[in-house]
Each structure stands twice: as structure tokens, then as C-alpha cells.
Amino acid sequence: MTERLYLFDTTLRDGAQTNGVDFTLADKLVIARMLAELGIDYIEGGYPGANPTDTELFAQDRGVKATFTAFGMTRRPGRSASNDPGLAMLLDAHADAICFVAKSWDYHVRVALETTLEENLASIRDSVQAARGRGREVLVDCEHFFDGYKADPDYALACAETAFKEGARWVVLCDTNGGTLPHEIERIVGEVTRTVPGERLGIHAHNDTEQAVANSLAAVRAGVRQIQGTLNGLGERCGNANLMSLIPTLKLKREFAETFDIGVSDRALESLTRVSRKLDEMLNRAPDRHAPYVGPSAFVTKAGIHASAILKDPATYEHVRPESVGNRRDVLVSDQGGRSNVLAELARVGLVVDKDDPRIGGLLDVVKEREAIGYAYESAPASFELLARRMLGTVPDYVEVLKFDVNVEHRINALGKRVTATVAVVKVKVGDDEPLISAAEGIGPVHALDLALRKDLGRYQDYIKSLSLTDYRVRILNGGTEAVTRVLIESTDADTGDTWTTVGVSPNIIDASFQALMDSIVYKLIRSGAPG
């Protein structure tokens, strides 16, 4: 018989406090729907009255199947519950529940609130009563609870007990500065459960010591039955407990999976990686490659010995199946890998080659030689696939580039403004047809070259219409007069949604860019089944 464990997401409030994150109303609605589809029980939308976005969010129906929660302070010291504008905004908000933040550290009550310990308890009591009187489910976040407990356990407990006795559904113990360690969390929560039952307790952990997930799990072991966290661990300073790590741990690790049930189904769990990356896409930032469970490198191996073993028995080298969280296994091809890595990558892209084929050794030698001069095939699997196909003789001679030219001119335009114009000209030959010459003006040399190259490819033009360049990264591998430039280009097929990365290396940044651009086009032609 499993016990229910509830998930409370604070991305829309705590996450919005992340440096560089500013959610629009549309963003909040999209994220709320993602959270509800994932199976999150509670979604904290924000602080109605604190800003126009949150006020508007709580003035409408969000259309999500989750307990949508408003966040705000208990009544101010010295005011009555009926004469506090902030409390009135919370009570009037279109929300299923209200989460009050309350001081539970005696020092903060005296110094920050500048009131008495008794008045703070009265604020908690009156606020819970007011919200329950309006038919709302009530949560009380006991701010800095663990610091307060260490300083004065009797008073911290009094705050939690007051909220509980007045009918708060959840009393949430907050490690607000993220400084408490897992063994302390487990001990203190265990002591709190003697006063407030575990099925009424929650945990809200910040990540300032990189232990928010561990602290949340320790609290569950000690008795709490609600976990608060954010998508991708967003939050102020070092972030909050990361639900992208907590959810699969609770679902897939035996100690928790056999004891607890959460609202996330197995099918929803398979969308975890997609949800994580969708949020990063909305924030216009690259996913954390090394994030547990959902990161692009979470199930990647580069070492030859491990690669060979993974191919034979992946279950013994991976702590969970990548597919269970919507991720995938990758065996990288690099100068540190061996034949197993090459064979694994070839199999992944659908190239079946006998393990004793002498061309495999030749391909591995070429990879090592090219990576020694700057190529990075682990970051550009599409270029590796093309390299392998060329060595195996399976890449048609689609396009021959006869020449290209890029001209950058600084001039005064017709409006009298000083501008920098870039024009690229490309001459290509497609099969036995007459050479094709295309020119284009772009924002910088790479953009102009990309536009000119894809402007007219004759019989192959229809195959590349949906192709677009979506990211461009440059790295100078060594300085001085012998500098070498590595260019990585990410491309997307608008028709299929597929993305791929190609690489080019040269002392000349334009040449390196052109290599990566050509690889991207040829890769698209192969994937589209273009005839040679």
C-alpha cells in the first residue's frame, strides 16, 4: 500500500526571481498548462497585487487541472485581517488555495517585522482563519524555519503549530537560505512531526549548498508529504529544489517508488526531458548539458571500455533507462573512444557495418586525426555521420562548390547613415547542369554566405526549403598568429522539427563556417532522401 506524496511547483513565483528571468502573462499560462499536464498537484502562480502580470493572472480562469495557488504575506502587524490591503488582494484573487509566507525565526520577527512574537503568531492565526472563511485551501510557508528552529525551537514550533491548529492544510518548512544539511533536515523534521503530523507537512528547500534535492528527500524520509520545487531548479541565488530530478527519483528509485505515489504517470514521466527543454527554449537559454536525468549528456559516454559494455548490457551501466524520462542514450565518437563508440554511433544512425570491417579502423584513425586539429564530433554528430558515410561510400556528390567570395564593405548609404554591408557570391555545379551563381546580402559574412549558398541549388532546391540555421557558435582553439577557429552550426528542419549540428575547422573563420554550412545542407539532402 503506497502513500500519496504531493508535488507543489513554485516556478511561476520562485522561478521568476531567477536573475535574467521575466515571465510574461502568456509565458505563465503556457508553463502552468505544462505543469498540469505533467501531473503537478499544486501550481503557485505568483503574488496578486505585487505586479500587473500576477494580478491579471489571478483575475482569469487558467484552465488547468491543478490546485492553482496565490502567494502572499500574512496580515501586517498592527492591522486587522479586515483592514489589510495585501490580505484583501489574496482573498479576492481567483485561486483555489492561498499560501501565506510567515516568519518563524524569532530574530526576524523582532528585527525585520519589528513586532512581538505574540503578534506574529496572531498574524498567522488571523490570516489562516480569513482564508478558510472564504473557502480556500490554506498553506503556510514557515520562512527560515530551520534557522529559527536552531535558534529557538519552541517558537519555531509555535508558528507551525498555530498554522496547523487553525486549519492550514499544509505547514511548509522552508530552508530559505539553503544552508541546512540533509542530516539536520531529517532530524529536525522528525522532531516537528511530534507536534504537526507528517501528512500535513511540506518542505521548501533552496539550493545554496547544492543539496536542495537531497534535503527534500531527507524531509520525505522524516515524514513530510508535500515537496515544493521548480522546473530546472529555477530560483533566486542558486535556485530551488529541482523537480526535474525529484520527480524521476520518486518514480524510479525503489526506496521511494515502493512507498509513495505521486501524481505523475509513467507516460507523463516520459515527457520530462521535453518539458525541461521547452522551458529553456522559452527562456532563450541552452539546456544544462549535465543536468541529471534530462540533460543532453545525462546518458552519454565517451570512454571506449564503457561504450563496449553499454552496448552489451546498458542496464548495468545506467541507473535508469533514458527512455523512461524521455531522454536518449548516446555513445560519443571522439579521440578518447574506440571501435565500440564508432559502431554504436553508426548503428544509431542506421548504418549497419560488420564489426571487423577494416574501414572502421580507418574511420577511427581519421576521427582522431581530425579531432587533434580541432574538430569535435561529439558536439557535431551530423558531421560525424557524413564523415562515416563518405568513408563507406554512401554520400552522393550532390553539389560541387566551384568558388565562393565574401565581401564586407563599410560605407555611407542613401540615407546618409554609415553602415556595414556584407555580400556573398557562391558558384556551384549540380550534376552535369550548367554552373549556378547566387549572390546575397546578409547581416555579417556567415549570414550572407548561408543565404547565397541556399539561394539556388537547382534540382535540390525544394529539398532544402524547410532548412534554417538556428545557432552559430565560434571557438578560437589557440591564439597568436596560428589561431585555429572551430565553428559549430545548429540547423533545423521546419517540416519535421529535427535539429542537427555540424562542425567546421580552419584558420579562417569564413572557411570553417562554410564547411559547417555545406555539411548541414548535405545532411538535409540525405535525410530527405534526395537522389544522387
TrEMBL record:
CDD domains (UniProt xref): DRE_TIM_LeuA3 (cd07941)
Enzyme Commission code: 2.3.3.21
Cleaved signal peptide residues: none
Origin: domain of life: Bacteria
Occurrences of domain Pyruvate carboxyltransferase (ranges): 5-270
Keywords from the named record: Amino-acid biosynthesis, Branched-chain amino acid biosynthesis, Isoleucine biosynthesis, Transferase
The protein's annotated pathway: Amino-acid biosynthesis; L-isoleucine biosynthesis; 2-oxobutanoate from pyruvate: step 1/3
PROSITE patterns associated with the record: AIPM_HOMOCIT_SYNTH_1, PYR_CT
Catalytic activity field: pyruvate + acetyl-CoA + H2O = (3R)-citramalate + CoA + H(+)
Protein family according to the UniProt entry: Belongs to the alpha-IPM synthase/homocitrate synthase family.
Protein name: Citramalate synthase
Organism, scientific name: Rhodoplanes azumiensis
